[in-house]
């Protein structure tokens, strides 16, 4: 999407982004979770600099409330991994414990 063609209806703030992601993934997303996605580079964020909308770079220091998001970028966020999903283990990775009985 060309940044010059963006309309106000195409943008949302951090609170709106957390609502969109919560609805999309059927999971609670806080504003802090949205900011973590930005920090990890999984979600693009936009800010106004001198009256012009520009993409936020990692070097740019901003307060979280200053961030804006495109709805199309929110729809492009990949599905989160399932929490607690075990990794594949091989026989070498499995540790077996033996019980030692006390002799009285």
SSE sequence, one letter per element: EHHEEEH
Supply the number of helical segments.
3
Our count of domains comes out at: 1
Mean pLDDT: 78
Question: Which structural class fits the helix and strand makeup?
Answer: alpha+beta
Radius of gyration: 22 Å
**Which regions are unreliable across 5 or more consecutive residues at pLDDT < 50?**
none
Biggest sheet architecture: 2 strands, antiparallel
End-to-end C-alpha gap: 77 Å
Strand percentage: 5-15%
Shape: globular
**Helicity range:** 25-40%
Side-by-side strand order of the widest sheet: 1-4
DSSP, total strands: 4
Q: What does the secondary structure layout of this molecule look like, with pairings?
A:
Blueprint: E1 11-12, H1 14-25, H2 31-39, E2 46-49, E3 52-55, E4 69-70, H3 71-75
Antiparallel strand pairs: 1-4, 2-3
Helix pairs in contact: 1-2
């Amino acid at each position: 999407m060309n940044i010059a063609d963006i309309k106000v209806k195409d943008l949302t703030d951090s609170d709106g982004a957390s609502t969109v992601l919560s609805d999309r993934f059927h999971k609670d997303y806080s504003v802090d979770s949205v900011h973590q996605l930005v920090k990890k580079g999984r979600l693009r964020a936009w800010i106004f600099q001198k009256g012009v909308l520009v993409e936020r770079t990692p070097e740019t220091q901003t307060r979280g409330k200053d961030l804006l998001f495109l709805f199309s970028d929110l729809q492009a966020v990949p599905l989160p991994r399932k929490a607690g999903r075990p990794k594949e283990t091989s026989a070498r990775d499995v540790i077996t414990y033996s019980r030692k009985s006390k002799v009285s």
